[in-house]
Amino acid sequence: MIKKYDSLVLLYSQAMVKFDTLLMNPKCRVCHGKDQRLAAKKFEWSTTEHAIGKGFAAALGKSSCARCHTGHGFITQTVDGKPKTDIDTLNMSNINCRTCHKIHTAYDTTDWDLSTVKKAGLAAKPADSINMGKGNLCVNCHQALSINPIDTATAPDSFKVTSRFFGAHFGPQTNILIGTGGCESICSTTTKPTVFPLTSVENGCVACHVSNADGENHLFMPSKRAVAAVNSSINVDTTRAKVDTLLAELRDSLVARNIIKKDSTAKIGFSLVPGTAGTMFPKAVAGACWNYLFIRQDKSHGVHNSPYVLWLLEYSIKVLKE
């Protein structure tokens, strides 16, 4: 055994020094001990979009995108509060352990603490801020980054789509959750539903997506049991089926009006028709399109806030029929 150890030292001297450090240092063993907790969390995380980084490549060299699409950008801007000009756009990383946790800070169990739980503001509604405890970490990026321009447009009956990035920008989960950010001017505001109960769930996103009824996990995929534990009134299957049916109906109406088209390269399977940017559309069509993209990009199929989502969908379909 000693000879084998000696041969490893000769062949892999630097690696064996690190091995000895981990073996002997009680601080390191807090995380790097004999149990499989760290390995399990890393494996779970490795299967997620945070690890795979589908949006990571899009942020390379772009400091304006790096705050949410890269680990380094998030730490630099959101956690450390530095300007985006301080982001090293040539040496970016995916969303990793150090992005969300205080790894190798105190070398004790507090290294598992979240990198920030500060009350988070909403880019699409600057006057508002959200406090979801541990969920504040998620709110920083999982929110609409574009202000809905249709409800404030001066033109009464038409709206010009000015960008191929028209929409709430891919991650409006927080906005859906609190019931804001959809195109509400095409709906009957007198029937707008009240705020969904999930907004009062302790630690928000984390309650279902991480530390939930099935135990702590880093897959970030909530189970039906996890959802039921925070709100037993939600029937996940029924909600998803109803929302998906209405989404399909709205999608087909928008395709018929030549504002969106099937696109296998898009995250939600559909995108704006090429050349749409710069085109004038009836306000009802533009608003319904905004709501379709808004709800599809949330990806909860209405579970985050079914009353609000169904309200937007039903009126979006209705105005296209008038």
Protein model, in words:
This protein is mainly α and 322 residues long. The chain folds into 2 domains: 2-112, no CATH class; 120-321, no CATH class. Helices cover 43% and strands 7% of the residues. The chain is built from 16 helices and 8 strands. The chain has helices at 2-11, 13-24, 26-29, 37-46, 49-52, 56-59, 63-69, 71-79, 97-100, 136-139, 173-178, 205-209, 224-230, 236-256, 283-298, 306-321, and strands at 120-121, 129-130, 158-161, 211-212, 215-216, 260-262, 270-272, 279-282. The strands form 4 sheets. It has a two-stranded antiparallel sheet. The chain has a two-stranded antiparallel sheet with strand order 3-8. A two-stranded antiparallel sheet has the order 4-5. The model has no long low-confidence stretch (mean pLDDT 85).
Key words describing this protein structure:
two-stranded antiparallel ribbon; 2 domains; 16 helices; 8 strands; 43% helix; 322 residues; mainly alpha
Concise structural overview:
The protein is mostly helical and 322 residues long. It contains 16 helices and eight strands. The longest helix is centred in the C-terminal third of the chain and has 21 residues.
